Amino acid sequence: MDTLFFYGTLRYRPLLEIVLGRGAKTVAAQPATLHGYAVVRDGSSPFPTIRAEPGARAEGLVVEGLSENDRARLDFYEGGFAYALRPVTVHGEDGPQVAEVYFPDTEERPRGADWSFEEWAARWAEMSCHAAREVMGYYEVRSAQEVAAIFPAIRARAWAKVRARAQNHAYSPSGYTDSDVRECAHRQPYGGFYALAEYDLCYRRYDGSMSEQVERAVLVATDAVIVLPYDPARDRVLLIEQFRPGPHARNDARPWQLEPVAGRIDAGETPEATARRETVEEAGIELRGLEEVAHAYATPGCSSEFFDIYVGLTDLPDDVTGVAGLDSEAEDIRSYLFGFDEAMALVDRMAIVNAPLLVALLWLARHRERLRVAA
């Protein structure tokens, strides 16, 4: 069958175009309704699922004339999320017709609130398009199930792209922007928790000309939050220690590193929410306030990773330390207390080798008196 009914996110034409790999305007589509079914949130997520409900009506889009390649690409996109096609009768402008619909593999999923296409489009469409580009980049390279396994990381990378456009404090004296970059080719030979991207590009030189085409490789990471917990009344900080694969890969004899609390900003999450969540997960403490330290790239010459750095105001009594972390992420994290002077002594003798921690401690040295007076 070459006719499908889309009730959810694929009603959004730009997303459908990415999944099909061709202009959505070339696809014959018209509004239609599926009677006896409701489109609801999939549990607490903002994404939709469909379920049989007497008296309900699912509004959507019926698409005709889909090719075998279209179907294969759609099956790949939907297949990793436990959706499969079933025939139904939908009612469109030309009357009833049979079409296939991607149904969840079970209708026993928790029923969320009614789903709104307009609300989803306003908040999630841009991120979903970025994510779909990466997902479809794995078409005929990986299985749908393999892609589904790394989908949280794909969504987090997509959310970072959205955030990059939403807020940018950077000062560039040249005035050059992304319009002064010409991207000739883009490859992504690896994708997992991180991704590796290769670009063939030209960029504007300071004499106004365009550079010769060059190849650049980038570690595509997510945005991350950095939090230095600080107790202004006791004038002490909490640092954590854990095994780090980066120093291990560098052949460092000490791959266990002293760090601030840190964690990935998940799709749809604010940096502030991430900061509070990660501090509980990694140190078992609640924050009562956040002080902005910096919003900066970690190493822009080779990575997209972007840090939102904070000092987190909290209480740090003597018995607050321990071992924490999520078993689901194989975390084994120990926390330690350091008086401010003790922490700065580590900075002075260059015993702190974590750059975000150095930034946070040096910021704290500058603003410490203000925070202590306000405590």
TrEMBL record:
<feature type="short sequence motif" description="Nudix box">
    <location>
        <begin position="263"/>
        <end position="285"/>
    </location>
</feature>
<dbReference type="Pfam" id="PF06094">
    <property type="entry name" value="GGACT"/>
</dbReference>
<keyword id="KW-0460">Magnesium</keyword>
<protein>
    <recommendedName>
        <fullName>Putative gamma-glutamylcyclotransferase</fullName>
    </recommendedName>
</protein>
<dbReference type="InterPro" id="IPR020084">
    <property type="entry name" value="NUDIX_hydrolase_CS"/>
</dbReference>
<feature type="binding site">
    <location>
        <position position="282"/>
    </location>
    <ligand>
        <name>Mg(2+)</name>
    </ligand>
</feature>
<dbReference type="InterPro" id="IPR036568">
    <property type="entry name" value="GGCT-like_sf"/>
</dbReference>
<dbReference type="InterPro" id="IPR009288">
    <property type="entry name" value="AIG2-like_dom"/>
</dbReference>
<feature type="binding site">
    <location>
        <position position="331"/>
    </location>
    <ligand>
        <name>Mg(2+)</name>
    </ligand>
</feature>
<feature type="domain" description="Nudix hydrolase">
    <location>
        <begin position="220"/>
        <end position="365"/>
    </location>
</feature>
<dbReference type="Pfam" id="PF00293">
    <property type="entry name" value="NUDIX"/>
</dbReference>
<dbReference type="InterPro" id="IPR013024">
    <property type="entry name" value="GGCT-like"/>
</dbReference>
<feature type="binding site">
    <location>
        <position position="262"/>
    </location>
    <ligand>
        <name>Mg(2+)</name>
    </ligand>
</feature>
<dbReference type="GO" id="GO:0016818">
    <property type="term" value="F:hydrolase activity, acting on acid anhydrides, in phosphorus-containing anhydrides"/>
</dbReference>
<keyword id="KW-0378">Hydrolase</keyword>
<dbReference type="GO" id="GO:0046872">
    <property type="term" value="F:metal ion binding"/>
</dbReference>
<dbReference type="InterPro" id="IPR000086">
    <property type="entry name" value="NUDIX_hydrolase_dom"/>
</dbReference>
<keyword id="KW-0479">Metal-binding</keyword>
<dbReference type="InterPro" id="IPR045038">
    <property type="entry name" value="AIG2-like"/>
</dbReference>
<dbReference type="GO" id="GO:0016740">
    <property type="term" value="F:transferase activity"/>
</dbReference>
<dbReference type="InterPro" id="IPR015797">
    <property type="entry name" value="NUDIX_hydrolase-like_dom_sf"/>
</dbReference>
<dbReference type="InterPro" id="IPR004385">
    <property type="entry name" value="NDP_pyrophosphatase"/>
</dbReference>
<feature type="binding site">
    <location>
        <position position="278"/>
    </location>
    <ligand>
        <name>Mg(2+)</name>
    </ligand>
</feature>
<keyword id="KW-0808">Transferase</keyword>
